Amino acid sequence: MAAAKRDWGSDESGCTVLHIDMDAFYASCEVARHPELREKPLIIGTGPRSVVSAASYEARVYGINSAMAVSQARRLCPQGIFLPVDMHYYRTISAQIFTQVFSQITDQVEQVSVDECYMNVSGALLRWEKPSNIARWIREQVATRFHLTCSVGIASNKLIAKMASTNAKPDGVLLIPEAQQAQFVQLMPLRGIPGIGQASEKRLKSWGIEDVASLSRCSEEELQQATGSHISARNLFLASHGLDERAVIPHTPEKSIGAERTFLHDTSSLKTVCDLLRKCSDEVASSLRNRQLLARTLTVKLRFEDLHYITKSHTLRMPVHSAATIYPEAVRLLTSMLNMSEEQIKQGTLPKLIRLAGVSASGLSKTEETAVQPSLDDMLQEQDPQPDKAQQAQLAQAEKTLDSIRGRYGTGAVKLGL
Fold this sequence. Notes:
Elements: E1 17-22, H1 25-33, E2 42-44, E3 54-55, H2 57-60, H3 70-76, E4 81-83, H4 87-100, E5 109-113, E6 116-120, H5 125-128, H6 131-146, E7 150-155, H7 158-168, E8 173-175, H8 181-185, H9 198-206, H10 212-216, H11 220-227, H12 230-240, E9 256-269, H13 270-290, E10 293-304, E11 309-320, H14 323-337, H15 342-347, E12 349-366, H16 376-383, H17 387-409
Parallel strand pairs: 2-4, 7-8
Antiparallel strand pairs: 1-6, 1-7, 2-3, 5-6, 9-12, 10-11, 10-12
Helix pairs in contact: 11-12, 13-14
Active site: 116
Cofactor: Mg(2+)
Family: Belongs to the DNA polymerase type-Y family.
């Protein structure tokens, strides 16, 4: 909002929380490695049934934004440049930024996503004196080393810092002094508060709450009636007064790692869906190994032609990080969740048309910290190994070799056939 972008004053006392948000990160990463794309409408996402993952600011002029269907983006901007998502590249750049820049300030960094984090700089002020000095250095380093831009919000809490960085975009800094944070947040529409979505906005407006200013005039009891939730009422009450009780939590452990894809055309072919699950299993396994993690629970997700979806999970007896183990379990979950008969499996025909399929792994733990206790069956198999177990071990070793090849030549250099 133009009204929010003004100078709110220079009092930085108590403003020890920074929110850093990379500007159009995926698109900007592509421009950094392809400078000829600078100042052109760039859209990350391909395929008529895919969604836009990111859009450059030049593309946003045409009304294109994240989560929009690629087909719609092409209609809005036929001259746009459409590139596929390269998550390995974006994550590599992100890791370098976090390691070489953010972690040089403090270890109190809470990474929210590949391109966004909170930072508690209270312990760094002895060296840097003011949070604004830190924000300036971060933006300079990101621009100089990586040819990218980021926006920084400075405030006394996470909520206001995030809202400030949003209003500082692109490539800016916005400081909200502690004494001004209530006034700042009460300028906003309801959707200006992170966490208020379309459904919440509609429900609040049905109670006559049109914006954050009117929200701030409600008591917690009234908000509990409006939302039906004590927790939501408490959070909304605090937010409407510019308050946030959440602390910056560094090194938040990952809860799950997943991969999913939308088919070009809805399919009922078992082979087609299994081929996709194989690719997803390979991606998930590779991510687990790269992050030195093991997973105990595997989940398969299916979305049908009517857009509703189902999931089915299974917790394994032994933790895994190999596609040779993940893929067979994913196929078993697929046939189980669709209640497929032996005859249907033989025919290779699914009972429903599938639009999207994916695999995720959860119950994560660090490899070096995870004790793996072999069962009696495992020990007997080691003495008298079965052919399929030996093959599985060979595949697991092959996957580690593939990791080395991909690290040198890129993620698409080689694929695993199972």
